[in-house]
Inverse folding.
């Protein structure tokens, strides 16, 4: 196990605020996708390349816990890492922080799909060395 | 307990598809918000009015399970209902279907906030008669 | 010339407001797409079917003038119609109103593309009878 | 006249693609907002600070011309600059490029509003030194 934690900075645009003056809750799922993109590039498997190789990793479950609001112009730290990859699935855990303070955390579970057949297929073995856990915790 | 199930039809725009040809996963959280709006209007407490009365119901937890993809021009049935309302919180459960077939389901947990103080406050008693459960199941 | 004006009602979700308490300006382009979808269904050429027949109508120009803000829970009237269709292009004009009052207006210009070749192709003749004008005004 | 051209790099997420496999047209208005944010920070007037000082710069007109599609994972160059600032208005011009090739260009016109009164007010004099033109070209 050699967990790789991908990180990025992200400046909140006005577009993502709502009339409560905070980032609208759905945008965190896009933040999670942005950091998954960084994570996959970091481990040498950019998602676009993965698609061109005939795979897809659709989200089958998403979960977010909102601790404190993010606001316009915040310079967020977004982090993400592979929690586990087993059978035909994997889970990516994510965190959003501002100045080190946790604003939101959550995860997405993905199925590995063979695009030609549309069927689930064994998760890419390249993921295993980067996982935080051996197996699903639940 | 007299559960009220709010429902609406929703036509998927091109804006919400992604290059996999399906609705991008974050939009389901907006679908959940749309049906919560209908639900609150149905039970006589439109969210805008609730804000004008000094309350807010920020999302503190969101969960979605994706079963089958929704697609462009789909005429979706979105349903939502109060699962429970207790202490300073409530949970709304949601489903997205096409021709009766379940595409996604999930829930949001909300804190009830007094906007003047920014502090949690007892959930509106008007919610209780419309809840599916007496108390949180977990 | 027998202009067809498509119309729809649209309830503004919290998702589309920003911290100024009004609908964020980019969402109007999605409203324009929603009404184009209605317009094409009305004239018997749903966009999805048009794609399956091998055509695409990508936007090559978009313009919006914002007169008054739309707000959360507003029940908007969105209208759209074909301004002209000529050569390989067409223009759709759109308006957004609340209680009859104009909030925003604008247009999109589309190229007609043959999806197989990726090349511009003559605009569908089915559009002509529904246009407001004979030819581009500019 | 000492034009300041703000620039940023931006990685396209899956969220912003559509089923045509390209960036959906409304997102360019968010790109324009992102670069306006950079521009205002560059000239020492971050938009959040401007709001705290009692001003707002709502968009009253937006225009985009789409030349070539942007795609998933593209590392875009977004540029923006003040075209003019005169009376109670200003215009910001924007470009989106990939590897130097122009994908889209356009502009937004803003009114300067006094937030307390809600009335138009003289555009901030701090903008003048950074404008590309003396006065509106039209």
């Amino acid at each position: 196990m050699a967990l790789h934690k991908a990180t990025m900075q992200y400046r909140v645009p006005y577009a993502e605020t709502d009339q409560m003056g905070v980032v609208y809750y759905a945008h965190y799922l896009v933040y999670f996708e942005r950091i998954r993109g960084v994570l996959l590039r970091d481990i040498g498997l950019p998602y676009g390349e993965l698609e061109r190789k005939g795979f897809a990793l659709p989200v089958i479950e998403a979960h977010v816990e909102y601790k404190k609001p993010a606001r316009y112009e915040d310079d967020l730290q977004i982090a993400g890492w592979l929690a586990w990859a087993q059978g035909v699935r994997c889970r990516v855990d994510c965190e959003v922080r501002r100045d080190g303070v946790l604003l939101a955390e959550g995860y997405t579970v993905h199925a590995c799909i063979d695009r030609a057949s549309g069927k689930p297929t064994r998760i890419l073995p390249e993921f295993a060395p980067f996982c935080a856990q051996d197996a699903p915790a639940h």
In short: The interface with chain B takes residues 11, 13-15, 30, 33-34, 37, 46-48, 72-73 of chain C (CB under 8 Å). Chain C has two helices and eight strands.
